Structures are given as C-alpha cells and as structure tokens.
C-alpha cells in the first residue's frame, strides 16, 4: 500500500526499495527535499519512524551501488561440496565484516536472502546451520528468514543447538525488554517444537508477555 502511494505521488521520481530502505533519484535538490517530506509524512500516517541516521540527500555523481552490495551480490558459490563449504564460510565472514563497517546498511538482511536460496550440499548443513544462526543473533531483523530456513529443513536441524541458542537469547533479551527477539524465540519454539529450560525469573516475565499477545 505504501509503495503504491509513493509511486502515485512521485511519478517523475525513479525509485526502488531494498528490504526497508528506499532509494530515490530526483532531478534537483528541491525535488529531493519534497520527496523526503512526503515520505516522512506517509510514514507518520502509518505510525512508522524514519531512520534519520540513514537518511541523506547526495548530489550526483555518486556510486549507485555500495562496495558491499557489489562484492556480496557477485559472490559465486562453487558446485562441489568441499568448495561450497569454504565459500559459505568466506561469504558469511565477508558479510559480517561489511556489516560491521556499514552498520546503517541492511548487509545481513541481504546475505541471509542469498543463503536462503543456496542449493546446499547435504554434508554442508551443519556448518550452514551454525552460520545462519550466527547471522540471526548478530542481526535480529534476519530472524524471521532464519526461522523459515530452519522450519523448511526440519528433518536435519540440530534441535539441541537451536534450543541452547534460544534459551540464551531469552535469558539475555527478556530482562531488557527486547520483545522482538523474545517473540522470535517463542515463534521458533512453536515452529520447531522445542522444550526449553528457562530461569524461573525469566519464566515469569515470559508468561506475562505471552498473556499480552
């Protein structure tokens, strides 16, 4: 709905959306400011906030793609099991490096989508599983995709490994009021049918959150 409103209002502005980031190309600085004000008002209408740290107006010429998107977008995974395993490890390492260097960008959201559609050799699953969980812990916004990958591979997941990570996530994030991470953990428990051991203090808080849902 919001995308349609932007296209209807800003007909002469070239734009595209990547995950939750918008890129608009205007003919003048004044047009860019008008577009920004419109999107800002539109987000307010939907009770959403604009990330001011990530928002900027840049004058041409400038690079259309960032270094990380070019490097990760052109990354090639080889077609042999051993080589693919090495490539997966390299890809995730590069993703984490670029994420640290570009904390305002959606680097790991991009990376988890690439890994989601990778034609994986069965023998590489254990390492693959560990690395997507690492991405999920590092960038909470990737957690829905991580859960989707795990749920679609229910027959070969390590429930013990996932259970331990979820228990740690709940123990860390629940007392801090990080409900997004806790909600993901609960959803993952329901999707994967895991029996958790939660500290009794956190168990009480967890019960309160579940009652609010």
UniProtKB/TrEMBL annotation:
GO molecular function: RNA-directed DNA polymerase activity
Pfam families: RVT_1 (PF00078)
Domain Reverse transcriptase residues, every copy: 1-96
SUPFAM superfamilies per UniProt: DNA/RNA polymerases
Family annotation (PROSITE patterns): RT_POL (PS50878)
Keywords attached to this entry: Nucleotidyltransferase, RNA-directed DNA polymerase, Transferase
Iron-sulfur found in the keyword field: no
Keyword Nucleotidyltransferase: yes
Name of the protein described by the UniProt record: RNA-directed DNA polymerase
Classification of source organism: Bacteria, Pseudomonadati, Bacteroidota, Flavobacteriia, Flavobacteriales
């Amino acid at each position: 709905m919001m995308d349609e409103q932007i296209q209807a209002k800003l007909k002469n502005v070239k734009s595209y959306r990547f995950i939750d980031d918008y890129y608009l190309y205007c003919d003048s600085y004044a047009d860019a400011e008008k577009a920004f004000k419109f999107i800002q008002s539109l987000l307010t209408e939907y009770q959403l906030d604009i990330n001011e740290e990530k928002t900027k107006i840049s004058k041409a010429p400038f690079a259309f793609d960032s270094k990380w998107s070019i490097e990760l977008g052109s990354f090639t995974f080889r077609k042999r099991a051993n080589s693919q395993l090495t490539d997966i490890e390299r890809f995730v390492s590069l993703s984490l490096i670029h994420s640290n260097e570009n904390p305002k960008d959606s680097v790991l959201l991009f990376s988890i989508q690439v890994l989601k559609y990778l034609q994986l050799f069965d023998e590489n699953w254990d390492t693959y599983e560990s690395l997507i969980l690492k991405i999920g812990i590092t960038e909470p916004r990737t957690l829905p995709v991580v859960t989707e990958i795990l749920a679609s591979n229910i027959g070969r997941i390590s429930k013990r490994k996932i259970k331990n990570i979820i228990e740690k996530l709940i123990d860390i994030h629940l007392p801090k009021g990080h409900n997004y991470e806790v909600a993901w953990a609960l959803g993952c428990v329901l999707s994967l049918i895991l029996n958790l051991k939660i500290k009794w203090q956190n168990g009480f808080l967890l019960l309160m959150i579940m009652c609010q849902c």
